[in-house]
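For the sake of clarity, the format in which proteins appear in this thesis is described at this point. The record quoted next illustrates the convention:

___
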Amino acid sequence: MKLIKSTRQEQTFYGDIFEINGAGCVVFGFGKTKACREAINNNEDNEIGLDFASLSRVNNDLYAHCEFEFWADNTPDPINDRVPIRYLLRMLDQDETSNLVNPEQIQVVSYEDFVEYSQFNINFQMPIVYTSEERNASFKSLTEGTNISGFLLVPWMNSHIEKGSLMRSFIK
């Protein structure tokens, strides 16, 4: 078996990909996986990928698929499994949530605010290959001006079940 090295590392970010109520979501932040599994009622068919959200853009449509740094040469290109994205979510930690005007509701924010909240997930990479400026430029070239339905901040909650229920009721 031979390994193929991804040529899309600059467009792969530290996030999960889920389809919640049929809407493709890229999720950054704290407790993202457990809460999203609750939001999809643990239906594995709606869990697209964890931790390696590779973004691509076609015109003004954003897509995501799970792509690791390497994959076996006898497997299809992972981009073939990409899904259209309607929401970008950032799960807040407890301190960030305390700064919200309404800390028990999902907040719709501007694109610029979403990018600011998501700096860790945009810039996290192993191994470090790109500068923060390059990572931010890549993220913005892929996402800015796309047909995203919403940039969402999801508050910290006492349980993943509660947070998953909140997301399930908000995302339609």
